[in-house]
Amino acid sequence: MDMLKKFGRPAAYVSIAAGVLLILYAWFVSPRAFSAEIRVKNAQDPTRIDVNNLIAANWLGQAGLKLYPGDAIIYSGLQIDPAFKLPARQGQTLVYQPAQPVTLITGGERRVFYSSAPTLGAALWEQGIMLSSGDQLSLPLDTPLIAPVQVELAGALPLTIQVGDTQFAVSSAAATVGEALARAGVALQNLDVSIPAEDQPIPADGVIRVVRVREEILLEESAIAYAEERVTDAELTVGTEEVRQTGENGVQVSSLRVRYENGVEVARTTEQTWVSKQPLNQITAYGSQVVIQRSADTECYVDYWLAKEVYVTSYHDTGQTTASGAWPYYGVVAVSPEWYSILKGSSICIPGYGVATVLDVCPGCSGKDWLDVFIPTSEYISWSRNLTAYFMTPVPSGFSGDLP
């Protein structure tokens, strides 16, 4: 009524209308108090609050939570800015995800940062830390960030792995050669070796060689030569021989371990040897019956006790005496030391040369039916022929019937 008196009826109506509008504005535009729920990630029980302010950070403050750098506010599954204006609606939920300290150790250096990312991998990505192939983390990338984390990052180094004739490049943060090979999918099998060895650190030049090694056992046969036994037979004449038992070689077997490196044989070792077949000696009977005969050879018409096929050569002056001590002359013949011990001083008729006396030794004639006749240098003619020589009577004393 005072207003009517003071301003009159029209002015009063205007004032009343303005008041009504203010009340309506406050009702429809200004936020009314409503309840909300604040959840702290990984905590069991939420906090209920009554709010009439639409700023997200204020909701946390009303729930007694302080925001720090790196903390996150999640609304409807999405991270929102602390100043985000929320809709005025009953029963809404905010999730507060506090940042966790992450200690990253790389190359002996320590770096600490805070992150509210759900996993270690996401936290590293936020910091712009990109992992390359071969880098090694001491924790998995999917490790949840629900507590302070300390993780070591070993950066990968370029390596060259050579397997036999094949070579390929990899990146690896392995500490030892064995770890690097395992991560590269290269397995050492059986006797395989690596250079450097598996337990050694990565070499400075970054080159690892794998040698494929295999061994196999081989059986190798070799012949065992049979021996010859000579037996006397009084019913056979001197110079006659008969094989009574044919010789057969024996067999020796060797077990060999053969080592191959990258397909190439590098070693062969005999591990065991045994005789699988004994040799069978050859038995030859030779005659000891002396029968004196007269040669029909016109050049050697002599009585002989042995006619033998021999190989004849010639030699000339050497400036030395013969084995008998005499100076050589035409008619001296040299024989092997074995024959000389039996025939020394005896005579042999050699067709084309004549009668020769055994007075000299021919060391090179050992083991052979070989006569070396002397021809003086002034008359020397080189001889080299096979012929039948006649061993003249008398029979040497103590002769058993065999010339070795």
Notable features of this structure?
mainly beta; Ubiquitin-like (UB roll); disordered N terminus; 5 domains; 404 residues; 26 strands; 5-stranded mixed β-sheet; 13% helix; 43% strand; rod-shaped; 6-stranded mixed β-barrel; 6 helices
The top level CATH class name of the largest domain: Mainly Beta
CATH T-level fold name of the largest domain: Barwin-like endoglucanases
Question: Which superfamily, in CATH terms, is the homologous superfamily of the largest domain?
Answer: RlpA-like domain
**Amino-to-carboxy terminus distance:** 170 Å
Number of DSSP helical runs? 6
Structural class given helices, strands, pairing?
mainly beta
CATH architectural name of the largest domain: Beta Barrel
Spans of at least 5 consecutive residues whose pLDDT stays below 50 are 1-8, 16-30
Arithmetic mean pLDDT: 87
Record field, number of beta strands: 26
Counting structural domains, the number is: 5
Oligomer: single chain
